[in-house]
C-alpha cells in the first residue's frame, strides 16, 4: 500500500465492558450510522402497493406486486405465501446480490440465491424486491434506457452521483426501498410482525445487516458473504472488490463496520463467508468475530452470534450455507 494511505484517520468503536456502558453509547452509534445514509424521504403507505399477478405453486402462491417508492421509481417485488397454514406466520425479507434480481430468489431465473420455495415450504412468508439498478429496474435511472446500452455499472454510477447532489446516498435509498417492502410485509394479515428475519447474499448480505442496524423490526439476520471490515479491505488494496453503491460519507471517522453490526445485538446474527472471498479479508473477519463476540457476550447472549468461515471457498452461496440459514431462522423465529 502506498505510504500516504497506511495511517488513515479511522475511528475506533468503544467496546463496552458492561451492558450499561453499551446502552449509554448505543443511541450515539446508531445516530452516526443513520446520519451517514443521508436524507431519507418519508416512505409511502403500504396501501399504495398493487398486486399485479398471482402464480399458484404446489403448497404456496407467489404474488407479484409493485409500489412507487415516492421518489423516483416503480419497485417490483414478489411475496411467496404458504397455503393451508393456520395463524400468522414468520416471514423472511430476502435480498439479492449485485447484478442479481428477485427472479433469482423466487425461482423464475434460478441461481444459488433461489431460497423462496425452500423457506416457503418450511412455513415462512418470503418477500423480495428488485433493488436499484437491478432486475426490472435496469434502464430506469437518470439516463433511462441509455444506461442499458453501455457498461453494466453506468446506472449505478449515475444514481450514486445524483443522490449525493440531493443530500442522499444511493445506499440509504436502497435501504429505504427495503424498508418500504418491510412496511408492506408487516401489513399483510398472514404475517407475524414480531417474527421477521432478513437474509441475503453478497450485496444482499450487506443490506441485511445494515437494514437490521437501522430497523428493529428485523429480529434475526443471516448474511452470506461480504462479512467485511473496511479498514482491512483498504489494507489489502481491494476497494475495487465492492461496487460504489454502499460507500457512505463519514462512517470511518467514527468506527468500522463493527459499529453497524453491533447495533444488531442481541438479535441473532449468523455470518457465512468463504475464506477466499475477495471482498472479505480473513484478517477483518477475525477482528469482527472478536469484537462482535464480546458485544453479544455483554448482552448475555453469546449464542445469538455465530460465524462460519468456509475453507477454500470463494464468493458463493452453497447448499451447506442454505441449510444453516434455514436452521438459524427455525431456531430463532419459530
How would you summarize the topology of this molecule?
Layout: H1 19-36, E1 50-57, E2 60-68, E3 74-82, E4 89-95, H2 102-105, H3 116-121, E5 125-129, H4 154-165, H5 170-187, E6 191-201, H6 203-214, E7 220-224, H7 230-235, H8 251-254, H9 257-261, E8 269-274, H10 282-298, E9 305-310, H11 319-333
Parallel strand pairs: 4-5, 4-6, 6-7, 7-8, 8-9
Antiparallel strand pairs: 1-2, 2-3, 3-5
In short, what is this structure?
The protein is an alpha/beta fold.
Explain the overall architecture.
With 334 residues, the protein is an alpha/beta fold. 35% of the residues lie in helices and 20% in strands. The chain has helices at 19-36, 102-105, 116-121, 154-165, 170-187, 203-214, 230-235, 251-254, 257-261, 282-298, 319-333, and strands at residues 50-57, 60-68, 74-82, 89-95, 125-129, 191-201, 220-224, 269-274, 305-310. It has a 9-stranded mixed β-sheet with strand order 1-2-3-5-4-6-7-8-9, with helices on both faces. Strand 8, helix 10 and strand 9 (305-310) form a beta-alpha-beta unit. The longest helix is centred in the N-terminal third of the chain and has 18 residues, at 19-36. The radius of gyration is 19 Å and the shape is globular.
Amino acid at each position: 500500500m502506498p505510504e500516504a494511505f497506511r495511517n488513515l484517520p479511522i475511528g475506533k468503536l468503544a467496546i463496552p465492558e458492561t451492558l450499561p456502558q453499551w446502552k449509554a453509547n448505543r443511541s450515539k452509534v446508531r445516530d452516526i450510522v443513520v446520519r451517514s445514509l443521508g436524507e431519507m424521504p418519508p416512505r409511502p403507505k403500504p396501501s399504495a402497493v398493487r398486486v399485479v399477478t398471482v402464480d399458484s405453486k404446489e403448497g404456496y402462491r407467489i404474488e407479484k406486486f409493485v409500489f412507487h417508492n415516492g421518489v423516483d421509481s416503480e419497485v417490483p417485488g414478489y411475496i411467496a405465501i404458504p397455503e393451508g397454514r393456520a395463524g400468522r406466520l414468520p416471514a423472511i425479507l430476502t435480498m439479492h446480490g449485485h447484478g442479481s434480481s428477485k427472479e433469482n430468489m423466487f425461482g423464475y431465473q434460478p441461481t444459488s440465491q433461489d431460497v423462496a420455495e425452500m423457506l416457503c415450504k418450511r412455513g415462512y412468508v418470503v418477500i423480495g424486491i428488485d433493488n436499484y439498478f437491478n432486475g426490472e429496474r435496469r434502464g430506469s435511472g437518470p439516463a433511462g434506457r441509455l444506461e442499458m446500452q453501455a457498461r453494466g455499472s453506468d446506472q449505478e454510477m449515475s444514481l450514486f452521483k445524483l443522490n449525493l447532489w440531493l443530500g442522499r446516498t444511493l445506499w440509504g435509498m436502497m435501504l429505504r426501498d427495503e424498508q418500504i417492502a418491510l412496511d408492506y410485509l408487516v401489513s399483510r394479515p398472514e404475517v407475524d410482525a414480531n417474527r421477521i428475519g432478513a437474509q441475503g447474499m453478497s450485496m444482499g448480505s450487506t443490506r441485511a445487516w445494515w437494514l437490521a442496524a437501522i430497523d428493529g423490526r428485523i429480529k434475526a439476520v443471516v448474511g452470506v458473504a461480504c462479512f467485511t471490515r473496511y479498514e482491512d479491505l483498504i489494507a489489502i488494496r481491494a476497494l475495487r472488490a465492492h461496487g460504489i453503491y454502499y460507500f457512505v460519507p463519514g462512517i470511518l471517522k467514527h468506527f468500522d463496520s463493527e459499529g453497524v453490526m453491533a447495533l444488531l445485538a442481541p438479535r441473532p446474527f449468523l455470518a457465512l463467508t468463504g475464506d477466499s472471498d475477495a471482498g472479505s479479508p480473513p484478517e477483518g473477519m477475525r477482528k469482527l468475530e472478536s469484537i462482535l463476540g464480546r458485544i453479544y457476550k455483554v448482552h448475555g447472549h453469546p449464542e445469538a452470534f455465530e460465524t462460519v468461515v468456509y475453507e477454500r471457498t470463494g464468493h458463493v452461496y452453497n447448499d451447506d450455507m442454505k441449510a444453516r440459514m434455514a436452521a438459524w431462522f427455525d431456531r430463532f423465529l419459530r
